[in-house]
Every structure is written in C-alpha cells, then in structure tokens.
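Sat 14:20. Reprocessing the chain from the morning session after the first attempt stalled halfway. Input below, unchanged.
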Amino acid sequence: MHIHHLEEWQHSHDFLVDRHSAERKTQIVTALTLVTMIGEIVAGTIFGSMALLADGWHMATHLAAFGITLFAYQYARSHANNPRYTFGTGKVSTLGGFASAVALAVVACVMVVESIGRLLQPEAIQFNEAIIVAVIGLVVNLVSALLLEDHHDHTHEHHDREHHEHHDHNLRAAYFHVLADALTSILAILALFAGKFLGWIWMDAAMGAIGAMVISKWSYNLLRETSAVLLDGAIDKKTKLDIIHQIEQDADNRVVDLHVWYLSEDHLAATISLVTHYPQKPEYYKTLLAPISALSHVLVEVNPCKGEPCMEVASSKP
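Finished this time. Tokens:
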C-alpha cells in the first residue's frame, strides 16, 4: 500500500468561474421584468392590444428563463466541489443557457400562433393607453439590457498573439431574453402608432410575426453554441493547432492523438498522446503548454519511439 501523501499529484476539479456580479444583476432584472410583465398583461387585456398582450405574456416566459439563470448560478456554486461531478459544475451555466434558448424558441412559436390568430380575427385597440404601457415596458427592457451588457462578452488573452472570447452562456441567454423583450416592445409601439394614425390594424399582428422570426434566430444561435459545449463538441481549429505547435516544437515530439473540450466557458481539458525518441515525464509536456492558459486539466500519454532518432537533441534526457 502507498503510505505517502498524494497531495502533490492531486488537484481541484472546481472549474467554476465567479459570476456573483452577473447573478446579482440578473436578480435585479428579474424583479423589473416581473413588475413590467404584470403591468403589460393587465394593460393589454384591458386595452385590447395583441402586440402589448403578447409582449407581456412572453415576458412571463422570460421571467421563467431568468429563474433558470439564477438557479443555474446557485446550483453550480453550491455543488462546485461535489465529487459526483467528474469535472465540477462548470457546464451548469451552459446548461442553463441551453434551457433558456429553448424557452426563447417557445416564445417565438407562441408569438407566431397569436399573431396569425389576430390577423384572422382583428380586435379593437385602445391605442393611447397601450402606447403608454408599451413605452414603459421598453424603458424597463433597455435598463435591463444595460445591466446585463457589461458581462455579455469577456475577452481573455491566452497567448501573446491571440485573443479568445468566452461567453457566460447562462447570462448571455438572459441578455437575449431582455433583447427579445426590447424588440417586441419596439415593434408593439410601431404597430400601435401605425394603427392609430394610419388605420393599419393588421400591423399589430404583423409586427408580432416579425419579432418571432428575429427571436427564432437568436434562439437558434444560442442553442448551437451551448449544445456544442454540452456535447463536448470540437473546439476551434486554431486552439488545437496551438497545442500541437507547443508540443512539436520541442525535440522530435509528434502528437498522434488529441482531444480537447470545454469544462466550462473559460476552462479547457485535453488528452494528448505523443510519440518521441526523447521521452520525458508528463509534467514536462504540461509546462510546454503553459502559454495556453485556458487549459486547466491536461492528461499526457508519452510513447517512446523505437528505431533511429529522427533528429539529434543534445540536451534531451532519455
């Protein structure tokens, strides 16, 4: 039995990024959305505006999405060191973003159905009151977007010649929900003005359909990004080439097998199998990868190459 301490060879698998500020701002946006949602649903029902009512009801879906966002933050934080999760809870944020993207898709579908129904059966609209409430909703949405925008994209320098962009997919989903709210508020205002001054009642429903198409596009893009992370999809080609370059610029090393995937938005894991005439300990090759700071969990398999060396390396240690 091994009687020595193992701490030297062990390391933490907590790859969770601190999102406390983003979580706090999401809480504020959630409260604002709740108040606005109630106001728009009530006003849309009383004043007979489909655009306003649709804006309020899909705000309810966004409110549920914000709940998912907050739950994901809290769950990831409280289970960060739970041994049941092999690589920690770094992907919980991405999972929250995926769920919210699905909610966005549902919003778009509901808007299309409601818009078609309103085109077939137009209803009278109290324009003045509806416009006032829609403007209030837009102001709330813009304030919410400003609260979340600072955390929308983060750029970290991982190499002297390269920048990588990392997204908090959880917060990015919340940001898209706020943008969807703002978009539908703007379209509702345009439709109400068109109906009031030009008599184009059909614009109310048409704007709902246009908003649904834009929101569908946002949903699709977010689903594509988050699913790639959740399913350990391949990362960008440049990162892989950087890893290969760092290994193969030393001695006569050749990478024969490489797998790289996301542990969270800001952390990568890699398994590397290499062959060389001048084998070193795995720690040696990990130091070669130090310039790629996003690599947080690396496993290296070293295969000694039999036969004549491909090149002479005087300083190597066989």
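The helical segments are 20-47, 50-78, 92-120, 127-149, 169-198, 202-230, 237-248, 282-288.
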